[in-house]
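Let's study a protein:

===
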Amino acid sequence: MNNSGLVLKTAKEDESIRAVTMCGSRANKDCPPDVYQATYSDADYDNMWKGAFEMLYLFGEVARMVAAELEFTYDEGEEKGIEGYMELVKAGKRREF
């Protein structure tokens, strides 16, 4: 049973649930994936890291848009530093600052 099936089944069986709203790619398999979906992971170690890096890239993308709108400078070097540190941690070579 997929997540939407479980949600609907639970809602039908629990009288205290009065309404259920479901939308987006997690509820409708015919919807295209949303931008956050790449950040989701299962319990696989490599997939968790992929999700963490995708979140970093998504954050950078949004931060650049916000910075441009507010006429701020986005520090690309800071993002690259975080990415580098994440690579070190992933490789088990975390360094202390």
Notes: The chain has two domains: 1-32, 35-97. Helices lie at 3-13, 45-69, 76-90. The CA atoms of residues 53 and 86 lie 8 Å apart.
